[in-house]
Amino acid sequence: MLMMKERRPTFRMIEGWARSVLLDAGAIRECEEHGWIRDRAYPHARERALLVARRDPPSDASPEKAVAAVRDVLDTIGDTCPECPAESG
Question: What share of the chain is helix, strand, coil (3-state, %, to 5)?
């Protein structure tokens, strides 16, 4: 019997695309020890990522949807790794 695998919703795919754009722009980075994605709080890199989203969105998304995806990903990422010990000031 042929089973069809349900296709992932577009928001999952565009979320991965948005993370890739943010990584390439240098707006986010991965914690080297634990793998958590961290916001670099670098405004120029964020602007570059948004520019890429506007100019070169994924084939199944409008520029507006691509920009919204990049902003949504940024809104879900913190600037610290939850597993790293707090830095003493």
Answer: 45, 5, 45
- Residue 13's pLDDT is 85
Q: How many CA atoms lie within 13 A of 11 on its CB side?
A: 4
Token pair 């695998």 is found at 5
> 17 with 8: CB under 8 angstroms?
no
pLDDT of the residue at 88: 44
Burial 26-44 (b: 16+ CB within 10 A, else e): ebbeeeeeeeebbbeeeee
Alpha helix ranges (H) inside the chain: 10-25, 43-55, 63-75
pLDDT in tens, 2-53: 565 555 455 568 999 999 999 999 999 999 899 999 999 999 999 999 999 9
All structural domains of the chain with their residue ranges: 11-75
pTM of the complete model: 0.79
